Amino acid sequence: MSQVFNFSAGPAMIFPEVLHKAQSELTNWLDQGVSVMEVSHRGKYFMELITQAEKDLRNIYHIPDNYRVLFLQGGARGQFAAIPMNLIGKKGKALYLNSGHWSATAAKEARNFGEIDEITIVENGDKTRITQLDFSDIAEKYDYVHYCPNETISGVEIFDIPKVGDAVLVADMSSNILSRQIDISKFGVIYAGAQKNLGPAGITLVIIRDDLIGHARKDTPSIWNYAVQRDADSMINTPPTFAWYLCSLVFKHIQSIGGLDIIAKRNTLKAQTLYNYIDSSKLYRNVVAKENRSTMNVTFITGNAELDAKFVAESTAAGLQALKGHKVLGGMRASIYNAMPLEGVEALIKFMKKFEAENS
Q1: Function, please (predicted)?
Q2: Is 143 a catalytic residue?
Q3: Distance CA 92, CA 166 (A)
């Protein structure tokens, strides 16, 4: 088999440099003679690791001083519950912007903990597109407004920040975290599962403004209470130490290659290269409006389910892994997160051309 490229939507590809670094010190971390997985999470060396990891992340993402960084567990789904338990307060309700599967799933979970209004902002016509982002006239009626800027299943991305006036804006950035620079100060809470751009599955990043901590409902489990986690350095129980360690290596690697400006340029080039080919093809089609096409998850179809299945089987055999679309939509999906090199996209396009020639 030729070189393998992993297009999985998550758990996803990790920078090879990070994996090689982890491999080289797996059994002897910091010359301690043991693995990072074997040391105490409250010991001197691991505490130094998490302190430096937060410092590196703050530097990369320009996180303001009045925001707390938490490394939690439970994935984004855990935060679907934690957000309303911590943030629904005096106003008694929240607004969820539905742009696809994951934003709708978040709203469904939140209804277990408070009154939720939901507005569909996606239109599924000939082209899928976002229809509105200005909610400044109603947002302040709610304790917070929640949205998902990148829907992995449909390949829809929201590049502009919703207008919510002075209301608290919450974003599930699981699939586009650290893909480009953003203005953190526009958000009350940002959360993201690690398994796409940050590291391996098992750890979840939460960036939350200080004034939003300490208002959890009384029956909030301690593991979901942001104040409890803040006061315990995100370690009220034993954390996923290896996942945290790998995230720390990812942060260092991003810094070493020039930060998010370089990452963003690479991501834009990869996505544009793949979309340009799809648009020129007579076989493949992307059904998302150009202004909302995801930089991270490129979806495409042939229009024939049997041909799609053949494409997936043959691409897998050719070393292009995990191109099968999500079961909700079918078709194909190329997830090209930060760690995917341009060479992977070029290899995919080469295969797509060959497949098109053989199946036209």
Answers
A1: Catalyzes the reversible conversion of 3-phosphohydroxypyruvate to phosphoserine and of 3-hydroxy-2-oxo-4-phosphonooxybutanoate to phosphohydroxythreonine.
A2: no
A3: 17
How many Å apart are CA 227 and CA 232, to the nearest integer? 9
Pairing type for strands 145-147 and 320-321 reads unpaired
Joined tokens for residue 71? 């490394």
* 155 SS3 class: coil
**Residue 77 assigned ligand-binding role:** yes
Which residue do the tokens 């006061």 mark?
231
* CA pair distance 191, 71, nearest whole angstrom: 10
Q: Is-above-0.85 flag for pTM? A: yes
Q: Residue 11 contacts by C-beta under 8 Å, 6 or more apart in sequence?
A: 195, 200, 201
Q: Tell me how far CA of residue 299 lies from CA of 32, 150, 182, in angstroms.
A: 46, 13, 24
Of 29, 102, 224, 244, catalytic: 102
Q: What tokens does 199 get?
A: 């590291």
Tens-digit pLDDT string for the chain (360 aa)? 468 999 999 999 999 999 999 999 999 999 999 999 999 999 999 999 999 999 999 999 999 999 999 999 999 999 999 999 999 999 999 999 999 999 999 999 999 999 999 999 999 888 999 999 999 999 999 999 999 999 999 999 999 999 999 999 999 999 999 999 999 999 999 999 999 999 999 999 999 999 999 999 999 999 999 999 999 999 999 999 999 999 999 999 999 999 999 999 999 999 999 999 999 999 999 999 999 999 999 999 999 999 999 999 999 999 999 999 998 888 999 999 999 999 999 999 999 999 999 998
DSSP 210-249: GGGSS---TT--GGG-HHHHHHTTT-SS---HHHHHHHHH
The span from the CA of 20 to the CA of 58, in Å, is: 24
- Which of these, 105, 70, 62, lies nearest to 254 by C-alpha position? 62
Concerning whether 196 is annotated as a catalytic residue, the answer is yes
The answer to the question of whether 23 is labelled as a binding residue is no
Instruction: Report yes or no: 155 and 133 within 8 Å, Cβ to Cβ.
Output: no
Strands 93-98 and 115-120: parallel
Active-site annotation holds for 244? no
Q: Which two tokens stand for residue 216?
A: 């959890």
> Binding site annotation covers 237?
yes
